[in-house]
Amino acid sequence: MMSDLRALIVGCGDVGGRLARQLLAHGWQVDGLRRSVRDLPEGVRPVAADLSNPRLPEAWPARAPDYLVYCVAASQHDEAGYQAAYVEGLRHVLDWLKTKGQRPRRLLFVSSSSVYAQQDGEWIDESAATAPEGYSGKVMLEAERLALGSGIPASIVRLTGIYGPGREWLLSQVRRGYRVAEEPPLYGNRIHAEDAAAMRGLGHWAGRRSIRAIKKAMRPFCKGVVERSGSIAGPVGPPR
Fold first, then answer.
1. Tens digit of each residue's pLDDT (9 = 90 or more) over 126-143
2. Is 112 exposed, middle or buried (0-12, 13-18, 19+ CB in 10 A)?
3. Tell me: domain 6-162+192-218, CATH 3.40.50.720, correct?
4. What is the pTM of this model?
5. CB under 8 Å, gap of 24 or more: what pairs does 130-135 form?
6. Phi/psi of residue 9, each to 5°?
7. E strands of the chain, at which residues?
8. Do residues 156 and 111 lie in contact, with contact meaning Cβ atoms separated by under 8 Å?
9. Rounded to whole angstroms, what are the CA distances from 198 to 23, 100, 108, 153?
10. Pair 34, 49: CB distance under 8 Å
11. What pLDDT is attached to residue 99?
12. Residue 218 pLDDT grade (very low, low, confident, very high; cuts 50, 70, 90)
């Protein structure tokens, strides 16, 4: 059943593409913005754009999106790359909306748990203090503030520990004989890319009328890295 709801997913890559398929399956109309549009899921209307270029994309949707999801990944992993992707890119998108006189019902900004600096075993939720020491967390906080101050009702989803096809760091480390000290305990939260984009994840938050300004998205339990590594080591076998 076709819906009147339209979403524009800026950064329609791995997680964004999964979200697009979820929304399409629920009858949404979806525009997907990325530099190369040939890999967009079937059914997504392509919007080719370079977020580092302030010029309005030629294929920018004529109709305002009901929901704008900003779900990009930095192509350059340093402070300049993060600034370009998360702050300047978002600023350009907000300018394009202004140029076209468009105002979505809600802006959903996909952030990261790098905004937290706690390292002593504390339990972290949305109310925890954010005082990042690294550039990634600092830039993410700057981008979050830009989203929340945009004049558009905005929500932040802080994803953490995404895994899945192409995101197999821990699996490869275990295969190589990864060792973790049992004391002090090291904890890690993980969420599968499909779960991150599932209707109970990004799609769930995008579709609700009233939601928290900030949401930390992960599986509802936390495992010790020692325990998790052990559970992985059994199926994958000894180091190769």
1. 676 677 778 988 999 999
2. buried
3. yes
4. 0.76
5. 135/78, 135/79, 135/82
6. -105, 110
7. 6-10, 29-34, 45-48, 67-70, 106-112, 154-159, 162-163, 187-188, 191-192, 214-217, 223-224
8. yes
9. 9, 30, 14, 22
10. yes
11. 98
12. very low
- Per residue in 225-237, pLDDT (tens digit) is 434 434 434 444 5
CA distances from 210 to 15, 128, 205, 206 (A): 23, 21, 9, 10
Nearest CA to 19 among 47, 48, 43? 43
82 CB neighbour count, 10 Å cutoff: 24
The single-letter code of the amino acid at 218 is: M
Quick one: DSSP state of residue 44?
A: P
**CA atoms of 193 and 135, how far apart (whole Å):** 24
Q: Could you give the CA distance from residue 219 to residue 136 in angstroms, rounded to a whole number?
A: 22
Torsional class of 33: left (φ above 0), alpha (ψ -120 to 50), beta (otherwise): beta
Least confident of 25-39, 45-59, 158-172, 225-239: 225-239
